[in-house]
Specification:
The structure is a single chain. The chain has ten helices and six strands, in the order αβαααβααβαβαβααβ. By secondary structure, the chain is of the alpha/beta class. The strands form two sheets. The chain has a four-stranded parallel beta sheet with strand order 4-3-1-6. The protein has a two-stranded antiparallel sheet with strand order 2-5. Helix 7 links the parallel strand 3 and strand 4. The relative contact order is 0.19.
Length: 216
């Protein structure tokens, strides 16, 4: 969301809540942090899941397109790994010093007389560190994160936190993308995440938000 648009819409009394994304929303994409995230995701796929390096970039694009996040898509394809291990590898090694305090945004957020909630697909530790770096940790009523919508890690990881089942046991999404009108059916994912309606419905329920009076 653009800060100006949020301000203008929040002034309208019919709105009671602003639902914010986190990454590339509360800080600019030009910070370079998202690029670091992408690099870590691809490295995880290569080193932890054994996916061929040359296939990873295109695979990431397809998984994001069909499932909203790479993690959700990897789970749907049949890869077995620990959620915390994935988040630790992808977010735990980020150079958060790339983010700088934003006092202008802080003052704007604190001036808005409506509820303000963050909804991110990222894990709680990442959200907390981003808000801390930006100086916005006390600007929001709450944070809906990965753990909020996916509280049970019911997979069976190996000792190092990740396990690749087998090539035979994974769905070939490249074949699906090449033949979208075939009889192939996309497998579902156990991960609940945006941009899908089910995730937003859960968020509205958990945070007691009226979707008809919310800007998202």
């Amino acid at each position: 969301m653009e800060h100006e648009d949020q301000t203008n819409q929040a002034i309208d009394p019919k709105y009671e809540c602003l639902l914010f994304d986190l990454d590339d929303t509360l800080y600019p994409m030009t910070s370079g942090l998202s690029k670091e995230v992408t690099q870590n995701i691809q490295e995880y796929m290569i080193k932890k899941l054994g996916i061929e390096e040359e296939k990873v970039p295109e695979l990431c694009v397809s998984l994001y397109k069909y499932y909203g996040t790479t993690m959700a898509g990897l789970k749907a394809m049949g890869y077995n790994f620990n959620y915390d291990d994935f988040h630790g590898f992808v977010h735990g090694r980020l150079p958060y010093t790339m983010l700088k305090p934003d006092p202008v945004l802080r003052n704007l957020l604190l001036s808005l007389p409506v509820r303000k909630v963050i909804f991110t697909n990222a894990d709680k530790n990442h959200a907390a560190r981003v808000l801390n770096r930006l100086g916005l940790e006390d600007c929001f009523e709450g944070i809906i994160c990965f753990e909020t919508l996916n509280p049970t890690n019911n997979d069976n990881p190996s000792a190092d936190g990740a396990k690749f089942i087998s090539n035979a046991g994974t769905f070939d999404i490249s074949n699906y993308s090449a033949h979208p009108d075939s009889e192939l059916e996309l497998p579902s994912t156990p991960v609940v995440c945006k941009p899908f309606e089910k995730a937003f419905e859960r968020v509205f329920e958990i945070a007691n938000i009226n979707p008809h009076k919310t800007v998202k």
